[in-house]
Design the sequence.
């Protein structure tokens, strides 16, 4: 069984496991109010915000591709959302998940205590993990639980067994030295015991011995490097991924404003399917006439594409997947980035994470929209660039000059590449997208390889930046070029 930190796209799978186990094992102990409060605490948009801000770390136990269980831990060391599927309960799954959370608290968060609110039937499990009751059973806001705690430095896991031996040996040495000192006349000054406990023990044991010992132990035991729970970057400088990679260009003193709206819907009544949507999109305010309405309709339609496809007007294929699935899921979660905004032009990119019928039908989409704000014209790549053989050669050359991209899309001939840029997605694999940001025009694909495809480049979307001045030889006669700099 593999236990690791969950990726962003796996959060919904974890929430599905949590809700499934909660309904059967925990909900009967809660009042209606308690169930409602729990449901709010596991809403995707709420959990996603916690995950992305690193308020919580989420771990999953995988048996092959199946998510068998999950646990999350807050920055203060409090266990949150610890659930294991019925078929994996009673085995080692829960213990491995707990150990992942403990290591995260110890090595990443540098904490000395973990806590949990254990539903009554799980108290014995938490005790087996080394936790103890921190108070009497409580019933708060319709939820029944026992507060539990564990001092991590007292844990009986292997690292701490080793630590105990080392400390015992060290204390024996101190004792021997003390006895020797009595016989040799060496003067040992008495120290105030409280001061020893509060200052010397804290400064020496935790700050010096404890940190040095475990840093070295972790390097040796886990193969070197710093354990970061699977996170990249640091608290101060997290690694940029997805939309964060885009360098936006927003002109100052625009005559309009860009606000945010969202579409949020969870079907609480439907018991046979998990239906949940949270779609964010920008809203332009301050355009005159009917342009504002039309521009905002275009932006919302682009953001809502999956909701339209799988819920508002589902295909027969989607309907059949829902009917046949033991755990049907219809969900879409969309974020956006305003990439470029001038008086007459707006470029927006959307990332969409959706489930289309069941938990196995997970799709990531990258969509863009480029709008002329003067007349609500939507630009496609072929509207602004002459997609000739020369342009295709120029574009793929730029794409392959990036780090690690020397052979990217080598499965396609240059003629096939040109066909994709003209709109032939080759069965939906290479969906051409472009957007403009502060660095230039970004041209590439929203990618959808089949599972196991050897040509899969490992990205949801991949684009390369083309400088606007470099595009002058390929520019079509279009109002687009009057709206962006430096090409006029």
Sequence:
């Amino acid at each position: 069984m593999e236990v690791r930190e969950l990726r962003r796209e796996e959060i919904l799978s974890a929430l599905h496991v949590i809700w499934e186990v909660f309904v059967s094992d925990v909900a009967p102990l809660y009042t209606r109010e308690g169930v409602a409060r729990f449901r709010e605490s596991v809403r995707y948009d709420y959990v996603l915000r916690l995950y992305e801000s690193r308020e919580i770390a989420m771990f999953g136990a995988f048996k092959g591709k199946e998510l068998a269980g999950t646990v999350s831990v807050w920055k203060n060391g409090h266990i949150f959302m610890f659930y294991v599927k019925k078929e994996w309960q009673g085995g080692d799954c829960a213990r491995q998940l707990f150990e992942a959370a403990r290591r995260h608290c110890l090595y990443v968060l540098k904490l000395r205590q973990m806590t949990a609110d254990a539903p009554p039937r799980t108290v014995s499990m938490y005790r087996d993990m080394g936790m103890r009751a921190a108070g009497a059973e409580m019933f708060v806001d319709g939820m029944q639980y026992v507060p539990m705690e564990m001092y991590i430095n007292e844990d009986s896991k292997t690292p701490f067994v080793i630590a105990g031996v080392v400390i015992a040996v060290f204390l024996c040495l101190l004792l021997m030295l003390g006895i020797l000192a009595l016989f040799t006349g060496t003067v040992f000054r008495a120290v105030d015991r409280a001061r020893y406990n509060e200052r010397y023990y804290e400064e020496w044991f935790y700050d010096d011995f404890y940190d040095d010992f475990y840093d070295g132990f972790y390097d040796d035991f886990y193969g070197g490097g710093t354990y970061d729970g699977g996170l990249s970057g640091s608290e101060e400088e997290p690694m940029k991924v997805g939309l964060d990679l885009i360098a936006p260009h927003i002109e100052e003193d625009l005559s309009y404003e860009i606000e945010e709206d969202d579409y949020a819907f969870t079907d609480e009544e439907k018991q046979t399917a998990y239906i949940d949507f949270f779609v964010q999109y920008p809203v332009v305010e301050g355009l005159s006439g009917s342009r504002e309405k039309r521009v905002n309709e275009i932006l919302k339609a682009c953001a809502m594409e999956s909701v339209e496809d799988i819920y508002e007007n589902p295909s027969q294929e989607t309907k059949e997947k829902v009917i046949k699935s033991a755990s049907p899921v219809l969900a879409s979660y969309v974020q956006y980035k305003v990439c470029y905004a001038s008086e007459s032009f707006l470029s927006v990119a959307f990332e969409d994470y959706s489930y289309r019928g069941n938990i196995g039908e997970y799709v990531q989409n990258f969509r863009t929209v480029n709008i002329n704000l003067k007349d609500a014209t939507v630009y496609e790549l072929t509207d602004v660039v002459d997609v000739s053989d020369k342009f295709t050669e120029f574009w793929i050359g730029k794409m392959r000059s990036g780090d690690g991209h020397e052979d990217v899309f080598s499965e396609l001939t240059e003629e096939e590449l040109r066909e994709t840029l003209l709109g032939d997605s080759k069965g939906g694999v290479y969906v051409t997208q472009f957007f403009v940001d502060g660095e230039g025009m970004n041209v590439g694909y929203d990618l959808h390889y089949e599972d196991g495809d050897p040509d899969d480049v490992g990205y949801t979307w991949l684009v390369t930046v083309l400088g606007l001045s470099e595009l002058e030889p390929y520019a079509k006669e279009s109002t687009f070029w009057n709206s962006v700099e430096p090409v006029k």
Remarks:
- The longest strand covers residues 328-341.
